[in-house]
Write a structure and sequence with these properties.
Number of strands: 9
Strand content: over 45%
Shape: globular
Oligomer: single chain
CATH superfamily: Jelly Rolls
Number of helices: 1
Distance between the termini: 36 Å
Radius of gyration: 15 Å
Length: 119
């Protein structure tokens, strides 16, 4: 019989976790947790964008994101463009090219079908 598995808690991650700079002068992203399934890993964490250079990102994996604070302007190559605010949920399919910008700042929590640090 397999040993029981314990869950993990990341106390106050939304307010305490500071994602590292990943692009430009204003785009920050960091994984908080990654599953242990080597064949189909899932990573989750936070993406923060501050006013400044837009981030253009091409997804090499499927991702879901919920906006937890601030606001984004999100557009894609199809011409779709939305103003995203707290509580909005997005699905970004593998292969999509998304542009993120913000008039002030935005904070999103994401879950992506990828290995830790592979964003």
């Amino acid at each position: 019989m397999a040993a029981p598995l314990a869950f993990k808690q990341f106390v106050q991650a939304q307010t305490e976790f500071k994602p590292p700079l990943i692009a430009n002068e204003n785009a920050f992203l960091g994984d908080v947790a990654t599953s242990t399934d080597a064949t189909a890993p899932i990573s989750a964490g936070f993406y923060r964008l501050e006013k400044g250079t837009p981030l253009v990102y091409e997804y090499t994996y499927d991702e879901m994101k919920i906006i937890v604070d601030g606001e984004y302007e999100i557009s894609d190559e199809t011409g779709q463009k939305v103003r995203a605010t707290k509580g909005d949920v997005f699905y970004f399919p593998k292969g999509s090219k998304i542009t993120f910008t913000t008039p002030s700042f935005g904070l999103g929590f994401f879950v992506g079908q990828r290995a830790n640090g592979a964003a």
